[in-house]
Amino acid sequence: MIDVVIIGNGEFPRKDYPRYLIKNADIIVCCDRGAEKFIRASKAVFGEKRLPDFVVGDMDSLSASLQKQLDDRIIHISEQDDNDQTKAFRFVMERFKDIGSIRILGATGLREDHTIGNLSLLMEYARTFDLSGIEVESVSDYSTAFAITDSCDLHIGEGRRFSLFTPDNTLKIKSRGLFWPLDNVVFDNWWKATLNVATEDIVSLEFSHPSIALIILD
What is the mean pLDDT of the segment spanning 153-162? Predict the structure, then answer.
């Protein structure tokens, strides 16, 4: 099984865990200008300068000199229906088999609109791709985010901070293992199930019907 890291043009991680994910990835795919940040930070991460394995996007923000240097690694996708993170994700899903994990870094920070959009896309990927057996997360210095599509048990650890978002205001969720149960929450605004805390090692969520939701943990 291969572990893939996708690096965006947001805030490049400084903490040990996300940098550990980069260092131990089998494949590193950068989104357009995210390649510049990766190359600049690569010596601190690897002990030597490294180039990404692939750079995916419309190439509207990557410098001409770096495009020339990375010419044999660039996957130029000019369509504008999807952002570069989605283009990179689709490329990975179509190009590689036996994927164990896809971790997305540099997807958040710097711009709130990009942060919200990129995190919400995790729900779209869970809805539109066959992700069976693939761990998909967006990881930063501050949080780990992932999507769920139905009832599940989450082994997250007692005391961990927990937030849930869903665009489905018809969804009802019964919960066990949270300080503030979700049983009576109406999901008609983003804040409704945020800033919670796990009171048990396992948080159980029971959906009223299959849907999509985003989990963010500290």
Answer: 98
